[in-house]
Specification:
The chain is mainly α and about 180 residues long. The protein is built from nine helices and no strands. It has a domain at about 60-165: AhpD-like. InterPro entries: AhpD-like.
C-alpha cells in the first residue's frame, strides 16, 4: 500500500495547483497520477512543460497515444495502460491495435507499428538504438528528428510510469473497463 497522497487542487502544495488546474481543463478532471505528482512541485511543473511540448510536436494524437501506451506496457505501469487505452481509442486507434500493444505486440498499422517498436526497443535497450532500429523507423516514413521526438514522448511517459510505480495511485472509475495487469 502506498503512503503517498493523491492531492486535489484544493489540497495540493501551492506551486502544484496551477498544473492541476491546467490538467483539469484538459481532461475535465485531475488524473490521479497528477494528484500523486503534485507532492513535488518540481516534478509536476517539469512534467507539464514536457507534456505540452510532446502534444505540440509533429506526431498526431493517435501516434502519441501509440507511444504512451507502448511505454506503459513496456514499463508495466497498470494505471497508465488503462488511461492510455482509453485515450488511444478516443484518438482513433483501432481496437485491435490497442489490444496488440496491450499484449506486447506491434499493432497492424504500419506507422503505429514503427512507433511502437522503436519506443519499446529504446526502453528495453535503455536508449541504445542501433542503426537497424533507426533505419526501420525511417523506412516506415518517419524522419530522423522524429527518432529524437520519440525520446521526448518516452521521457514524459517515464515520469508518469515511475511515479505510478512509486505512489500507486488508484485507477479512476472511468478507466476500470481498461484495467490491465502485467
Amino acid at each position: 500500500m502506498s503512503t503517498f497522497q493523491v492531492y486535489t487542487i484544493d489540497s495540493a502544495p501551492e506551486q502544484s495547483k496551477p498544473v492541476l488546474r491546467q490538467l483539469q481543463e484538459i481532461f475535465g478532471f485531475v488524473p490521479n497520477i497528477a494528484g500523486a505528482m503534485a507532492e513535488s512541485p518540481v516534478l509536476i511543473n517539469a512534467f507539464i512543460n514536457l507534456f505540452q511540448k510532446v502534444h505540440s510536436g509533429t506526431f498526431t494524437e493517435a501516434q502519441i497515444q501509440t507511444l504512451l501506451l507502448t511505454n506503459a506496457v513496456t514499463n508495466a505501469c497498470t494505471w497508465a495502460v488503462a488511461f492510455h487505452t482509453a485515450l488511444g481509442l478516443q484518438a482513433g486507434l483501432a481496437p485491435a491495435d490497442v489490444e496488440a500493444i496491450r499484449a506486447g505486440r506491434a499493432p497492424a498499422d504500419k506507422e503505429h507499428a514503427a512507433l511502437s517498436i522503436l519506443a519499446k526497443t529504446a526502453i528495453q535497450k535503455r536508449g541504445h538504438l542501433d542503426a537497424h532500429a533507426v533505419s526501420q523507423f525511417l523506412e516506415a516514413g518517419f524522419r530522423r528528428d522524429q527518432v529524437l521526438e520519440v525520446l521526448a514522448v518516452s521521457a514524459a511517459s517515464t515520469i508518469t510510469n515511475y511515479v505510478c510505480s512509486i505512489t500507486q495511485p488508484p485507477l479512476e472509475a472511468q478507466f476500470q473497463v481498461h484495467a490491465w495487469q502485467a
